[in-house]
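User: I've been going back and forth on whether these two constructs are worth ordering. Before I decide, could you fold them both?

Assistant: Sure. I'll take them in the order you sent them. The first construct and its structure tokens:
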Amino acid sequence: MRQKLSDEAKALALATLPNWHLSAERDAIERRLVLKDFSQAFAFMTRVAIAAEQLDHHPEWFNVYRTVDILLSTHDVDGLSDLDIALARRIDAFAADFGL
């Protein structure tokens, strides 16, 4: 069973994820990515979707044209868990592949 991250663990994790920030509305992390165009945004989201399936952990996200907003939180623990951090790291790697 997953456990909610402590405040200290969140701070340590966020120190290694400079493109992410804590959500003002809930115990979650967020990132906005602006890609070249809709096709690139869709390709990026497809890569994230495959990784999410592999982890069995799915983001909340919103896409308009070339912008992708991502929110990560673990519903089972009602907050951040190690799964969110693992998926954020994969998302950051994909973003780097797209030059972000």
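The second construct, handled the same way:
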Amino acid sequence: MAKEIIKEAEANMKKTIEVVKKEFASMRAGRATPALLDKIQVNYYGTPTPVNQLANITVPEARLLVVQPWDKTALPEIERAILKSDLGINPASDGTVIRLAIPQLTQERRTDLMKVIKKKAEEGRVAVRNVRRDTNEHLKAYQKEGKISEDELKRHQDEVQKLTDRIIKEIDNLLSTKEQEIMQV
């Protein structure tokens, strides 16, 4: 029973890492990546639809994204959605494709991005610690019910702590990689 709780905690912590990775991928770091458009929703026939479900997104150059809609009538809506987004990129359309030139990041924008990224990493760490706390509470409840001994409780709590430390270290590694990517000129 206790092993199942720890396995569930590990699965939840790994989900947190995936969320942090997705958050980081959708942040502009001066390089073009299709993940930049992941959060953008387009009003497609009255339904909010992700851009990547309406168009082919390619990266022909390091600082250029090309969005080629499968349905040409969606082009103006995609353009409007990109303009409304917080990317700070002006789309250039030629009637068949939208070109997004990714500008060089200013030092001020880099600093702002660093704050946001550190905040996202901290949110990830907090989520992992919350999983640890909940898991430890479940283990203590088992111990009170007499399902595990006090020694087993201590051993399981140590196991949960090691897992937590490992996952938080992974989040910190993701953070430092993203920091280097953003601060690279």
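Notes on the second construct follow. DSSP finds four helices and six strands in the chain. The longest strand covers residues 55-61.
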